[in-house]
């Protein structure tokens, strides 16, 4: 069964949707806890997700005005679709209810860790297959930010 190739705009829509789900998750997680440090950490992560949304929206505007957007080859398109559909912060809303069922801070942090790993994997794949140097640079910066988030969440679990 052939998979329709994704173009850069499709991939950017997926990234925006995933970041929106992440923002929603962290806002809801912040509302679940009274501890000011935990609440602040989740609100900070939500704010950073909002920054990522704006970044991807800016890239989307730039790419949408360009002629001849490249299309990712079928295997890469299929892989990116699979990543986006099964990620913790996915584009089909399958997991956005998870925060309501979280029973501990550790569980919320583990969800965040998995989501950051999903994002890194998705963004690295896009970065490795895009032809736009500016997009590669932006993705490189976002990957570094996601790695910082991952590290921050891991440190919080250890504490």
From TrEMBL:
InterPro entries: Ferritin-like, Ferritin-like_SF, Rr_diiron-bd_dom. GO terms for molecular function: metal ion binding; oxidoreductase activity. Residues 10-156 form the Rubrerythrin diiron-binding domain. SUPFAM superfamilies: Ferritin-like (SSF47240). It comes from Anaerosolibacter carboniphilus. This is Rubrerythrin. It holds the Pfam family Rubrerythrin. The lineage of its organism: Bacteria, Bacillati, Bacillota, Clostridia, Peptostreptococcales.
